[in-house]
Amino acid sequence: MRLVTRGDLDGLTAAILITEMEQVDEILLVHPQDITDNKIEITSNDILANLPYDPRVGIWFDHHAHTVMPEGEYKGSYQIAPSVARVVYDYYASVTLQRFSHLVTETDRFDSADLNREDVENPQDVILLGFLVDPRTGLGGDFRTQFTSLIERLRSRSISEVLYDADIRELTNTFRRDDHQFKEFLLANSEVHDKVVVTDYREVENAPVGNRFLIYTTFPDCNVSIRIQWGPGRKLVALNIGHSIFDRSCTVDVGELCRNYGGGGHRGAGGCVLRPMAAGLAIKIITEKLRKN
Length: 293
Known about the structure:
Blueprint: E1 2-5, H1 9-21, E2 26-29, H2 32-36, E3 46-49, E4 59-62, E5 76-78, H3 84-92, H4 101-111, H5 117-121, H6 125-133, H7 143-156, H8 159-163, H9 166-177, H10 179-189, E6 190-193, E7 196-200, H11 214-218, E8 224-230, E9 237-243, H12 254-259, E10 264-265, E11 269-274, H13 276-292
Parallel strand pairs: 1-2, 1-3, 3-4, 4-5, 7-8
Antiparallel strand pairs: 6-7, 8-9, 9-11, 10-11
């Protein structure tokens, strides 16, 4: 079977669990919008994880609150949970998967942003891995090959052993070295609107790497952030919106807000893509809605 999932820590952990329980021959990493827009041909030989439902799919796992539910029965599981990895883990409820319980628990914390300041400023263990494989961190490299390699490594070795591998240590060194530069970048390219901080990447070439939660330690008085950047080929403008993980006073349902623009997500985090001509006005409207809280 083919596993179709997202290229992040939740997708990685879910892939580890699923490949333990199913015969997976291929792994495809896609953006949720690719499924929504029917850009990916899905068949009954596919497993979808952490992505919108497609009626042609063989097995489906998801955990997002605003998922459009299928009509009738389907194979797999949908639960509102901290991570799709948790949904997969509970669905199989297998002794075989118990050795991954720590990985799943930490993936829950990372994907639901249940982190403390130490996790953000000096991440370790699974949380560090989460930042390293997060596309929004911007470390680059052959991401798909590395993702597949990590699945195989983590199925047979501990997280501490994998983090000590030469390629992962090199990524970690880059991540930590550029952390200060990334904070300076945030200060130079962000605007604050009351309790909303907006960071625009569109005019910056080769932005420094950094974890996406550093915005909340850099702007501790803000309770929600908007990150604006170009999509592939600069054909679309991508927005990522998130409640602060330290100041929980934002009451706007971000997933619902993003759904109005063809995206989705959780109550506290979500994203959407906009056409460049309409992006300016949409960003102003979204910022104002968040500002009014």
